Protein backbone atom coordinates (compact mmCIF):
# COMPACT_ATOMS: atom_id res chain seq x y z
CA UNK A 1 0.00 0.00 0.00
CA UNK A 2 1.31 3.46 -0.89
CA UNK A 3 1.70 5.90 1.99
CA UNK A 4 3.10 8.91 0.11
CA UNK A 5 1.29 10.79 -2.69
CA UNK A 6 2.72 10.37 -6.19
CA UNK A 7 2.85 12.97 -8.95
CA UNK A 8 -0.20 11.33 -10.54
CA UNK A 9 -2.03 11.48 -7.21
CA UNK A 10 -1.35 15.22 -6.90
CA UNK A 11 -2.37 15.88 -10.50
CA UNK A 12 -5.73 14.17 -9.92
CA UNK A 13 -6.12 15.97 -6.57
CA UNK A 14 -5.55 19.38 -8.19
CA UNK A 15 -7.94 18.66 -11.05
CA UNK A 16 -10.95 19.08 -8.74
CA UNK A 17 -10.62 22.75 -7.74
CA UNK A 18 -7.05 23.84 -6.99
CA UNK A 19 -8.08 27.02 -5.16
CA UNK A 20 -10.70 25.38 -2.94
CA UNK A 21 -9.92 25.28 0.80
CA UNK A 22 -9.51 21.75 2.07
CA UNK A 23 -9.14 19.86 5.33
CA UNK A 24 -7.06 16.73 4.94
CA UNK A 25 -8.05 13.70 7.01
CA UNK A 26 -5.06 11.46 7.72
CA UNK A 27 -5.73 7.99 9.11
CA UNK A 28 -2.45 6.46 10.23
CA UNK A 29 -1.22 2.96 11.07
CA UNK A 30 2.28 2.82 12.54
CA UNK A 31 5.04 0.28 12.11
CA UNK A 32 6.36 -1.17 15.36
CA UNK A 33 7.90 1.83 17.16
CA UNK A 34 6.56 4.23 14.54
CA UNK A 35 4.56 6.41 16.89
CA UNK A 36 7.66 8.23 18.21
CA UNK A 37 9.00 8.61 14.67
CA UNK A 38 5.70 10.11 13.50
CA UNK A 39 5.79 12.55 16.42
CA UNK A 40 9.18 13.69 15.05
CA UNK A 41 7.51 14.17 11.66
CA UNK A 42 4.73 16.26 13.27
CA UNK A 43 7.38 18.53 14.81
CA UNK A 44 9.03 18.91 11.38
CA UNK A 45 5.62 19.50 9.78
CA UNK A 46 4.80 22.28 12.24
CA UNK A 47 8.15 23.98 11.52
CA UNK A 48 7.80 23.88 7.72
CA UNK A 49 4.10 23.92 6.84
CA UNK A 50 3.16 27.38 8.14
CA UNK A 51 4.56 29.05 5.02
CA UNK A 52 1.80 27.31 3.09
CA UNK A 53 -1.00 28.29 5.47
CA UNK A 54 -1.37 24.77 6.89
CA UNK A 55 -3.02 24.53 10.29
CA UNK A 56 -3.12 21.38 12.40
CA UNK A 57 -6.72 21.14 13.56
CA UNK A 58 -6.32 17.89 15.50
CA UNK A 59 -3.73 15.19 16.11
CA UNK A 60 -4.59 12.29 18.40
CA UNK A 61 -3.87 8.63 19.00
CA UNK A 62 -6.53 6.03 18.29
CA UNK A 63 -8.09 3.84 20.93
CA UNK A 64 -10.17 0.72 20.66
CA UNK A 65 -12.85 1.34 18.02
CA UNK A 66 -16.51 1.34 18.98
CA UNK A 67 -17.65 0.12 15.55
CA UNK A 68 -15.17 -1.54 13.18
CA UNK A 69 -14.28 -4.78 11.51
CA UNK A 70 -11.11 -6.59 12.59
CA UNK A 71 -8.08 -4.71 11.29
CA UNK A 72 -9.92 -1.42 10.71
CA UNK A 73 -8.60 0.39 13.78
CA UNK A 74 -6.21 3.28 13.15
CA UNK A 75 -3.29 4.22 15.41
CA UNK A 76 -3.73 7.96 14.96
CA UNK A 77 -5.82 10.63 13.28
CA UNK A 78 -4.53 13.94 11.94
CA UNK A 79 -6.67 16.76 10.53
CA UNK A 80 -4.89 19.59 8.72
CA UNK A 81 -6.60 22.61 7.18
CA UNK A 82 -5.07 24.16 4.05
CA UNK A 83 -6.13 27.43 2.41
CA UNK A 84 -6.30 25.59 -0.93
CA UNK A 85 -5.58 22.28 -2.58
CA UNK A 86 -2.73 24.05 -4.37
CA UNK A 87 -1.17 25.03 -1.02
CA UNK A 88 -1.07 21.35 0.00
CA UNK A 89 0.49 20.38 -3.32
CA UNK A 90 3.06 23.20 -3.11
CA UNK A 91 4.00 22.12 0.41
CA UNK A 92 4.44 18.47 -0.57
CA UNK A 93 6.85 19.51 -3.36
CA UNK A 94 8.79 22.00 -1.19
CA UNK A 95 12.45 20.95 -0.66
CA UNK A 96 12.51 22.09 2.98
CA UNK A 97 9.36 20.10 3.76
CA UNK A 98 10.73 17.08 1.87
CA UNK A 99 13.78 16.95 4.14
CA UNK A 100 11.56 15.48 6.87
CA UNK A 101 9.18 13.29 4.91
CA UNK A 102 11.39 10.26 5.52
CA UNK A 103 10.21 10.46 9.16
CA UNK A 104 6.61 9.97 8.01
CA UNK A 105 7.51 7.19 5.58
CA UNK A 106 9.57 5.32 8.19
CA UNK A 107 6.80 5.63 10.79
CA UNK A 108 3.91 4.25 8.76
CA UNK A 109 2.84 0.90 7.46
CA UNK A 110 -0.46 2.28 6.14
CA UNK A 111 -2.08 5.67 5.67
CA UNK A 112 -5.17 7.19 4.16
CA UNK A 113 -5.18 10.84 3.06
CA UNK A 114 -8.74 11.98 2.38
CA UNK A 115 -9.39 15.57 1.27
CA UNK A 116 -12.60 16.95 2.74
CA UNK A 117 -14.53 20.15 2.15
CA UNK A 118 -17.02 21.69 4.55
CA UNK A 119 -20.68 21.23 3.90
CA UNK A 120 -22.93 24.24 3.84
CA UNK A 121 -25.72 22.12 5.24
CA UNK A 122 -26.20 22.28 8.99
CA UNK A 123 -27.49 19.10 10.52
CA UNK A 124 -30.43 19.60 12.85
CA UNK A 125 -30.43 17.72 16.17
Automatic annotation (TrEMBL):
Q: Read off the PANTHER family from this record.
A: DUF1330 DOMAIN-CONTAINING PROTEIN, PTHR40257
| Source species taxonomy | Bacteria, Bacillati, Actinomycetota, Actinomycetes, Pseudonocardiales
Under which name does UniProt file this protein?
DUF1330 domain-containing protein
- Tell me one Pfam family matched here: DUF1330
Q: What are the residue boundaries of the DUF1330 domain, all occurrences included? A: 35-109
**What SUPFAM superfamilies does this protein's entry cite?**
Dimeric alpha+beta barrel (SSF54909)
Q: Which domain of life is it from?
A: Bacteria
Organism per entry:
Pseudonocardia oroxyli
**Gene3D superfamilies assigned to the protein according to its UniProt record, in alphabetical order:** 3.30.70.100
